[in-house]
Amino acid sequence: MIGRWRRSSETSRHESTVAKRQWFARRRYGFGVRPMTWQGWLITAIAVGGAVGALAGVQKTAGEILLVGVVGLYLALAFSLGGTKRQVVTDSRASGSDDDPELENGAAKVIVPPEIYGTQTPREIAEEIISRSGKFADTAEDGASSDSVIVVSHLTKQFGQRVAFEDVSFNVHRGEVFGFLGPNGAGKTSTVRTLSTLVSPTSGTAQVAGIPLNADRDVEIRHRIAVMTEVPGLYLRLSVTENLAFFAGLYGYRDAQPRIDRALEAVNLSSRASDLCGSLSKGLRQRVGLARALLNDPEIIFLDEPTAGLDPVASLEVHDLIIDLRDKGVTVFLTTHRLDEAEKLCDRVAILNTTLRTVGRIDDLRQRMFHKSILVSTAVPLADPEGLFSSIGSVAGWSTDDTGGYVLTVSDVRVAAPAIARALVAAGADVLSLVEGHHSLEEVYLELVGAGSMGGVR
Amino acid sequence: MIRKEFQEYRRNRFIIYTMGTLPLIFTALPVITLFSISNTEAPSIVKTQVAITLLLLLVIPVVLPATIAAYSVIGERDQGTLEPLLTTPVTREEFLLGKSLAATIPTVGVAYTFFIVLVVAIRLGASSVVAHQVWQPSWFLAELLFAPLLAAWSVWVGTAISARSSDVRVAQQLGTLASLPALVLPLLMSLQVFKPTAAVAIVIALALAAIDVGAWRIVSKMFDRERLITGASAVTMRAEAGT
What we know:
The complex is a heterodimer.
Chain A: H1 2-26, H2 38-56, H3 62-81, H4 85-95, H5 101-109, H6 122-133, E1 148-159, E2 162-173, E3 177-181, H7 188-195, E4 203-208, E5 211-212, H8 218-224, E6 225-228, H9 240-250, H10 257-266, H11 282-294, E7 300-304, H12 312-327, E8 331-336, H13 339-345, E9 348-353, E10 355-360, H14 362-369, E11 372-378, H15 385-390, E12 395-400, E13 406-410, H16 413-426, E14 431-436, H17 441-449
Parallel strand pairs in A: 3-8, 3-9, 6-7, 7-8
Antiparallel strand pairs in A: 1-2, 1-4, 4-5, 9-10, 11-13, 11-14, 12-13
Helix pairs in contact in A: 2-3, 10-11
Chain B: H1 2-11, H2 13-35, H3 43-78, H4 82-86, H5 92-125, H6 128-134, H7 137-164, H8 168-179, H9 184-190, H10 198-222, H11 225-230, H12 234-241
Helix pairs in contact in B: 1-5, 2-3, 2-5, 3-5, 3-6, 3-7, 3-8, 3-9, 5-7, 7-8, 7-10
């Protein structure tokens, strides 16, 4: 009873502290600067100083009345401009909605029930969410090696109370295409933004291109990586070459033309070099974005949905480019919703849904998650399938599929297949096919993420 | 950065037209007024008219860069170029200086050009009392010093608003309004609250320079990559997350 009372009291005090903190967070004055910071005081002091200066010289002339009016307006403006915290967050989501499905949908996807706010840690909250969804809660963490170009250890990012991703650990090896999969709001883009130094993690550590992820070394990291966002982000009034020249300049390349030519050649865009980006199709703009990502010969390229909105031919071209990059030893960190794309291109994949669900080679994941199986198809249904299959020692179980075929669970396909064939022939069955069962990445994904989260998956 | 901004201005004629139209109006109207003043006019009226004219000329470097600066960050975000830009090794100082110089240089150029046109026109066409009142070292010094300093103030305020706003139109409106207080000091000089001498011009210029440096420091602090991308700063989020 006492324990319960204490917990209730602590929870109440905690909630009160959180409420106070949120109230202060919502109060923003002086062009969005809180009043207690020195910037806020300075802005206020300038405005008040101006007003006092004006009033000191009052001679009841129209000019001075105007002056006081202007200063008053300025004060009103400065004190009202910041708005509330809620507005700031909403506005930023609106502004970033094109390329940031997480921010757009995150609040709706990661629903933290109000009763689990309070004394619980983010880890506990996440575990509760996962356990309530009844899905996997295990986190895969493979060992770091000297060949790893990205090493992520227990990385967490929270946006206020919202957990973008939590306790994420994985490694990416040099020269591999690493697929990063997950539903909308899973934290994929936030992870990429964290690793590309755009946002700082709430906790945990990471190394990118061998450099620790911290604010002091972010420029160093940015020299060695490239990021291609879902929206290519080009200056539409500038030509392809002008766009690339601008970005090459930001990397510090003075005579960048050879680099630009190489990048354009790599994406088959040399003939459109002088075209305005605004006149290019979406597919071509995507290629310009990819050319931009190649300018600094990066060790790691982060590609965020590189084929989103592209037609099949344009998608294939992007796939070929990714394969070329891998052949050249560039590490590709590919964020995608397209499971066929991941299956085709990725050496390894990680599946994220706020927490990391698994990391590994796709074949290994299949083996880890599904029993080996043999699919049998016959011209007419078997008279006694139970009697037939249970008599085969290497068959552990069986079921029928949607087409009327039989799915036999086996421990070793090479041993079981001949035995099954012999048994079927001996039983007089007209066998149409006998093939090894194959589980797609989609099945692995669905198993890990859950059909309930699949609404946003294309 | 500056070259890219200039390339964009060149391709967007609307920017060039507005850059030229406003100063033209601000110069033409007072010129007509000053040209109508005869040598027999009372000296106090001449002084007032000249002061108002020269004050109007100082509005040019305040108003012109305000809209450009207000677009500088929110505009990049609006067209989806901010995130690719921030993933390059460009530092926030380089980014801000590039943006501010790209807005300040043409503005100051336009302000100086129209000032020269005005004073030459007055020398050639206005009455001698007006010409004598305009061709004072203090006014020349004031224009020379105030134009870049006022433009810099306007740019920093506009950039600060741009970094915090979520809508281009709101940023531009607020940027223009918030840049106006910088006119207080030249206004005091024009209204003869301070006697318009070269020394006063230098003191006011020093005050403006100090304000500009302060504004630059504030804007530089406000330029937080995380806030620009996500809408909230890392420090705030850590505090709210309780870590």
